Amino acid sequence: MAESIIKNSKIVDAMEKNKIFAVVRTDKAQKSIDISKALIDGGINIIEITMGYEDASYAIQELSKNENVSIAAGSVITAEQAEKAIKAGAKLIVSPILEMRLVKLCRAKKIPIVTGAATPTEAYNAWKLGVDIIKIFPAKALGGHAYIKDILTPMPFLHLMPTGGVDFDNFTDYLNAGAVAVGMGNAFYADKTDFSSITKKAKTAMDKLNNYFEKNNYPC
């Protein structure tokens, strides 16, 4: 394995400790901010804001003012997007692909990066380049938690985070399969305007996670 992009990254450590990585995908900055604040009220403290709209960096900037929350930029494909997100305060770059220019940029900026993979070979190649956490997407369509276990059986050194189809009913199955964290999005906000419901769902997820920790004697 190449040297990790960032040694002892606080946000990577937090992801592996807190397990739930919330993905907020909307088409407007204020929507992302409002949904994120509802998630934060429910106990979620690691949130990805996707860069699929023009003023996404504004949402990152505003949410990064909360020192108790770690904000990542997601759906990053170009170096320009990454630069803009980092300037706005993003502490992590998440890309659906393994793009060498992004890996080199993040290494130079001392910002950790999560890259996407769908196959064991793609996951292994990301690990070789020093990517600490590899996003397996779309996890459910690829085979769910059984697929995660199948990848990890011959390569237990990979740190995988499944996303896509991960919800309240199955996220602990992915953790049991060996995932270091899980990415969850639509499970929290099928209705993007009912913020009290989003907060309630976040609390439900955190309660289930804490029960999982207690059952498995997980160190807190």
General description of the model:
The protein is an alpha/beta fold and 220 residues long. It contains 10 helices and 8 strands. Strands 7-6-5-4-3-2-1-8 form an 8-stranded parallel sheet, with helices on both faces. Helix 2 runs parallel beside helix 3 (56-63) and helix 3 packs parallel to helix 4. The mean pLDDT is 94.
- How far from one another are the termini? 29 Å
Helix content: 40-55%
The count of helical stretches stands at: 10
Instruction: Quickly give the structural class.
Output: alpha/beta
Quick gist of this model?
45% of the residues lie in helices and 15% in strands. It is built from ten helices and eight strands.
Characteristic key phrases:
220 residues, alpha/beta, eight-stranded parallel β-sheet, 10 helices, globular
List the helices and strands and how they pair.
Blueprint: H1 10-18, E1 20-24, H2 29-41, E2 46-50, H3 56-63, E3 70-74, H4 79-88, E4 92-95, H5 100-109, E5 113-117, H6 120-128, E6 133-136, H7 139-142, H8 144-152, E7 160-162, H9 171-177, E8 182-184, H10 195-215
Parallel strand pairs: 1-2, 1-8, 2-3, 3-4, 4-5, 5-6, 6-7
